[in-house]
């Protein structure tokens, strides 16, 4: 295997960078699919390419292991985590538990603590992409996924719980990794977020039902294994 991982980001990387900077570059490369699932991250190769010492590298990798983005296989090394196709159903089940719980918490908060502004902004951007289109090109698909994940992350943040938010972030990372390999996204998935936002505003049982429905729709269309 070549010592060059071929990462575009590495060319702009400064030697003597910090753990946080290195983990950010590696995280982005994994989440975008630039470093595909199953890629081995050899310590020497990565340290050489990024011009960092072993200790900085190990600390950055430890962060990514904790986030589930890379996996340490004893006696084999460090690899970008592989998410088998069947796992996506489990990810969606976990999403449902967390998102429904977050919406219940959001509904229980005083109205003046719940700001729908950031969700409105995302819905507006989604509509710009989806409007009048029956098909999205690769670039639009990438933007659509980013906006979709962002919408749900903000929705969970609105629960007001830092712990639920933290749990959700790792699911969100797995979603990004999975969908980096499944490049389809229909325009109607974007427009469905407006319905969801309307239901969330009711702050009652209909918001829970809409959240479940929203998460069941895409699962029905995912590949089964
Ligand atoms: Zn969504």
Low-confidence parts, pLDDT < 50 over ≥5 residues?
none
Q: From N to C, what is the helix and strand string?
A: HHHHEEHHHHHH
Helix content: 55-70%
Profile the largest sheet: 2 strands, antiparallel
Strand content: under 5%
Bound molecules: zinc ion
Beta strands, count: 2
Given the structure, what is the number of helices? Answer: 10
Order of strands in the sheet with most strands: 1-2
The average pLDDT score comes to 88
Our measurement of the CA-to-CA distance between the termini, rounded to an integer number of angstroms, reads 31 Å
List keywords for this structure.
225 residues, two-stranded antiparallel sheet, binds zinc ion
